[in-house]
Design goal:
6-stranded parallel β-sheet
């Protein structure tokens, strides 16, 4: 029921977005990522095939925005350039968002994405600690994330960071490195979660004996570490609030300097940050 879908999007976001995928699977080996269907295989549709579907969606449903839900968008070399050229030739520059690996971004890719109408790129930054990234088998560096952010933002594309806390072995120093990464890069948005052991992953096998009676979340925002972790669950929930609050305040301060007062409430709410910082320091010593 696309009309119902449109109504809900407009009601909650002010515009209508619809999603599609250009590929299936992911060839990388992050050890917390479950791959029950495709394994590590990767199959991409042709740019012409994808653009044809976009034209069909545009003509039938007139979306304001596309959401490419691929695990990784445009992974094959030259794919994004071809896609961008076809989008331009069909006058199909509808804003879209997608997910990229940081180590796959260069200036030519950023330029091609922008020409195709890319509005937002989400990156699985995960952590500002190289130690944690290596334990995750992420296969990227912290510097990759910094460079990708600079190139995408320089091209006029917003960048979102997915961040993950609570991975086994992560200490306060590693958490602070992630906070520092956000402060330094100032992405346009952030999404925070805690390490979640999915059955069938090396990560699950590693922590299986440390799992408690509860093996899953009830709601997507539970932010509950399901295994015996470095810090108490209360610490991670407070960390989530603290990082979001500090991040919003820093963005608001930056926008205030540009004469934008819309985010002033975020600066007012930031008055609680010293107390939350004290609480974090107190909770980190509990174990």
């Amino acid at each position: 029921d696309m009309e119902r879908y449109r109504d809900l999007w407009i009601k909650h976001h002010g515009y209508f977005s619809t999603n599609l995928v250009t590929s299936r699977g992911c060839p990388y080996g992050c050890n917390w990522c479950a791959k029950p269907i495709f394994g590590r295989r990767y199959h991409a549709r042709s740019p012409a095939n994808v653009v044809s579907e976009m034209i069909s969606l545009r003509d039938e449903y007139t979306p304001d925005h596309f959401w490419f839900a691929d695990d990784i968008f445009g992974l094959k070399k030259g794919w994004v350039k071809q896609f961008s050229e076809l989008v331009n030739s069909h006058c199909l520059e509808i804003p879209f968002k997608c997910l990229l690996r940081a180590d796959g971004v260069d200036e030519s890719l950023a330029s091609a994405l922008k020409k195709a109408g890319c509005q937002t790129v989400w990156i699985g930054a995960e952590s500002g600690s190289q130690k944690v990234l290596d334990v995750m088998d992420k296969g990227v560096t912290v510097e990759d994330t910094k460079k990708a952010t600079r190139m995408l933002q320089s091209a006029g594309i917003d960048v979102g960071f997915f961040l993950q806390f609570g991975y086994p072995g992560e200490q306060w120093e590693d958490i602070f490195q992630t906070i520092r990464l956000v402060r330094e890069c100032m992405p346009n948005d952030i999404g925070i979660s805690v390490a979640y052991p999915l059955p069938g992953t090396p990560f699950y096998d590693r922590v299986q004996e440390r799992l408690g009676e509860r093996r899953n979340w009830i709601d997507s925002n539970d932010l509950l570490v399901l295994f015996d972790s470095e810090f108490d669950p209360e610490f991670y929930r407070l960390l989530h609030r603290f990082i979001h609050r500090e991040y919003r305040a820093r963005r608001a301060w930056r926008n205030l300097g540009k004469g934008n007062w819309r985010n002033l409430p975020a600066l007012i709410r930031a008055s609680i940050l010293p107390f939350e910082r004290f609480q974090l320091y107190r909770l980190r010593r509990r174990r």
